[in-house]
Amino acid sequence: MKYHPQNSEPLDVAERLGKQQVVCYPVDSLPSADMECYQKARENLTLVDETIIPPRQAKTFSVPAGHFFRIVSIEGPQVGDLNLWHKNNLNERFYSGKTRALHGTHVSTSDRLWSSFPYLRPMATVTFDTLDWYGWDEDGGSVHDVIGTRCDPYIHMVLNNYNYHFCCHSNLCRALASYEKKSIDKIEHLIHDVLNVFMCTGFTKDTHQYFMKASPVRPSDFIEFFAEIDLLGALSACPGGDCSSSHSSDAAVCYPLKVEIYKPHQEALIDWSSPEVNSYSGEHGIK
């Protein structure tokens, strides 16, 4: 329950409320994704690798720049939490907050996943989404959100007062630690806010709290991305299953997910080049 306001409305309340909305980041000048190029490139794809993510676990995968990857539902409705890094520089990682500021609370075809400062460039572009028909439901919910941070054992301890080790944060930690061959305390700081793949979420209309509901994903549904740079990914099959009831527990029915890596004919990408890192000088007013 939200705390009741302690202060009465000021005399000039009408003047203060109801101002016109202004979009924080107008994207008219943002370089748009060349969807014609990507759609042509995906006409003739060759599957080169695939990874199965077991329920309540996470695994890493690599995608070379200029390749496509898909996250696929294979047995039942299941949500996945996705982290992305530049494969050769793990300090460059997916920046969900700036992606949200540019593209909105949920992403779909033609939206891009942006990297963290000081790099800030497109890491991946959504090129196909079998759930794009969902749009927005009557509660304001939609799929593939960049709102939620990932389920984690720390908030689980705060809310439930016991250790649970299969939250997506912990799953991603174990996966990256295994890939890097380092202890979790050496890599945990690299785990970051996620793209909640297939998750159906929004904000309640009364208290504006983050909500989840049963994902509409079904076996054979997928979301597809084009790798703009060399990527290392980690995907967790969330312990919430389809997130219809519980979150971060062993109660929900969970299913595996699959990651597929595809190589296009390179002739289709003759006009494409990997984006450069952000050109800001880095001086921050100090010379």
Can you give a write-up of this model?
15% of the residues lie in helices and 29% in strands. By secondary structure, it is of the alpha+beta class. The strands form two sheets. Strands 2, 4, 5, 8, 9, 10 and 12 form a seven-stranded antiparallel beta sheet that branches. Strand 4 (80-86) and strand 5 form a beta hairpin. The mean pLDDT is 96.
Overview in brief:
This protein has 287 residues and is an alpha+beta fold. It has helices at residues 13-16, 35-41, 96-103, 153-160, 168-180, 184-187, and strands at 45-53, 58-63, 68-73, 80-86, 89-93, 112-114, 122-129, 142-145, 195-203, 210-213, 222-227, 231-237, 257-264.
Number of domains: 1
What is the 3D form?
globular
**Amino-to-carboxy terminus distance:** 49 Å
What is the beta-strand fraction?
25-35%
Task: Set down the secondary structure blueprint.
Elements: H1 13-16, H2 35-41, E1 45-53, E2 58-63, E3 68-73, E4 80-86, E5 89-93, H3 96-103, E6 112-114, E7 122-129, E8 142-145, H4 153-160, H5 168-180, H6 184-187, E9 195-203, E10 210-213, E11 222-227, E12 231-237, E13 257-264
Antiparallel strand pairs: 1-13, 2-12, 3-11, 3-13, 4-5, 4-9, 4-12, 6-7, 7-11, 8-9, 9-10
